[in-house]
Amino acid sequence: MSKFFGPIVQQGYVVPDIHLGIRHWLKRGIGPFFLEKLQNYPAEVDGHSVLVNLSAAFAYSGDQQIEVIQAQDNTNTVYREYLERNPQGGLQHLGFWTNNISDQITKLEESESGFLVRQRYGDRHVYLDEVDCPGVMIQLMARDEKTEQLFRIVQEGAENWDGASHPIREIDWSSGWPVSA
After folding, report:
1. Is 28 exposed, middle or buried (0-12, 13-18, 19+ CB in 10 A)?
2. Report field, pTM of the whole predicted structure over 0.90
């Protein structure tokens, strides 16, 4: 467990092809995957406002969530940067819950830990990297009802999955809440 962030709750993999990334995990008996597509999603990358297009898929293995991400545009993001260095894809971040992202960032800044906010999605989640020792990023995810609902859908899907049926399921956000379609 991290002394800064607590227990790891998610492993995030950035891949050049999300369907191949999902297949990799399905072949290892991990699934089903819940796929969402985000279009023109507002973000901040290195202090600059951008709109990102990406696909993300989620599954559980025990208490660890597996996330697979594919950028769907050429916007400068931490995902594109990762794939430039690692064209085959791989582990890009480890995810941790936090009750308040701004408070957590303030504590990190006050401790002079060397973490820098690289990408931010408002107060929902941020990607941090350590300046002197960059590598696998830290993703802080705010505990909120919508994110916890998404995680519940994915975890219940894994608990009830037979290992074969409906290995990829869509997440519909049209109501403002995650719903498995």
Report:
1. exposed
2. yes
